[in-house]
């Protein structure tokens, strides 16, 4: 059997950042023929080195694909991937599925799905969770909603990138709403973790010991366990940037106003991310909220080792 005969099908990936690259590499390992596009030539070269194929545009990534993953930041970028100059919608074969992984408001997902459906392509609302490490392992959690046909077309490729796929209904937008609940909690937990570890530093405690104690105690959270090591190492390389949460918690605020539901804890977390961004750290890792606290209170946190 030749290599081509062992291929499971063609998949495109638009957006080869920390998450998208890991997903694309996982698809290659699973036996898919993968074409990838990114504005960064270096990111595309990494995919080629991992066994994928370079695509010069989103349309080129979509050509001949059974599924096209869009791993970009927001609804506006997703719309551009689909319908912008050299967009993917028209190039994607009829009956293929567009898998939208961006975090966005539910109404934005529904609007995009309707436009794609009008072109006789399928749209799967499929935001992702798990971080860059899980993406690289092909072990993400995917929150998915869309028509049965969209889900059927996407399942083989989803199996390559995810350990868990939650099928949440037949309508695009449902998964987006689930993701916003997750992002509310994630943002609040990151802000709380940063506040707690900087408070510990202000108290003169050994914050490495604090991390050891809290990760085995009732106060622990996934975000405390995941983000505090960045602070301990003084490494704010953006695995997930501060500005991601100014965006996502901003969407939560919009949704709360629309539904007349108060979210004061999320609102406070949003202000912390906004202040951190305003202090010049918007593109740094979201654990930089601890640096904002430290700057405000005159607390010294560990510096990055050279």
UniProtKB/TrEMBL annotation:
The protein's name: L-threonate dehydrogenase
GO molecular function: NAD binding; NADP binding; oxidoreductase activity, acting on the CH-OH group of donors, NAD or NADP as acceptor
One of the protein's GO biological processes: organic acid catabolic process
The entry's keywords: Carbohydrate metabolism, NAD, NADP, Oxidoreductase
InterPro entries, per the entry: 3-OH-isobutyrate_DH-rel_CS, 6-PGluconate_DH-like_C_sf, 6PGD_dom2, 6PGDH_NADP-bd, HIBADH-like_NADP-bd, HIBADH-related, LtnD, NAD(P)-bd_dom_sf
Limits of the 6-phosphogluconate dehydrogenase NADP-binding domain: 10-167
Species the sequence originates in: Chelatococcus caeni
Catalytic activity: L-threonate + NAD(+) = 2-dehydro-L-erythronate + NADH + H(+)
PANTHER family: 3-HYDROXYISOBUTYRATE DEHYDROGENASE-LIKE 1, MITOCHONDRIAL-RELATED (PTHR43060), L-THREONATE DEHYDROGENASE (PTHR43060:SF17)
Organism domain of life: Bacteria
């Amino acid at each position: 059997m030749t290599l081509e005969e062992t291929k499971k099908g063609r998949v495109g990936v638009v957006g080869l950042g920390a998450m998208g690259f890991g997903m694309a590499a996982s698809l290659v390992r699973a036996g898919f023929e993968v074409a990838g596009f990114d504005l960064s030539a270096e990111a595309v070269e990494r995919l080629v080195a991992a066994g994928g194929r370079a695509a010069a545009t989103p349309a080129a990534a979509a050509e001949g694909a059974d599924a096209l993953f869009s791993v970009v930041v927001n609804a506006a970028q997703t719309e551009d991937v689909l319908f912008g100059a050299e967009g993917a919608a028209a190039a994607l074969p009829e009956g293929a599925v567009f898998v939208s992984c961006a975090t966005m408001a539910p109404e934005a997902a529904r609007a995009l799905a309707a436009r794609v459906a009008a072109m006789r392509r399928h749209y799967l609302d499929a935001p992702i969770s798990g971080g860059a490490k899980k993406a690289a392992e092909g072990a993400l959690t995917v929150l998915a909603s869309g028509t049965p046909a969209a889900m059927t077309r996407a399942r083989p490729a989803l199996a390559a990138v995810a350990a868990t796929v939650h099928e949440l209904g037949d309508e695009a937008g449902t998964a987006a709403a689930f993701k916003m609940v997750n992002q509310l909690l994630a943002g609040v937990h990151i802000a709380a973790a940063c506040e707690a570890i900087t408070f510990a530093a202000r108290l003169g405690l050994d914050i490495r010991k604090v991390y050891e104690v809290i990760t085995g105690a009732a106060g622990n959270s996934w975000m405390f366990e995941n983000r505090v090591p960045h602070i301990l190492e003084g490494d704010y390389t953006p695995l997930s940037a501060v500005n991601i949460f100014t965006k996502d918690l901003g969407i939560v605020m919009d949704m709360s106003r629309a539904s007349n539901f108060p979210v004061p804890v999320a609102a406070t977390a949003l202000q912390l991310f906004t202040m951190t961004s305003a202090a010049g750290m918007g593109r740094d890792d979201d654990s930089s909220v601890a640096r904002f606290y430290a700057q405000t209170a005159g607390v010294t946190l560990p510096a990055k080792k050279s």
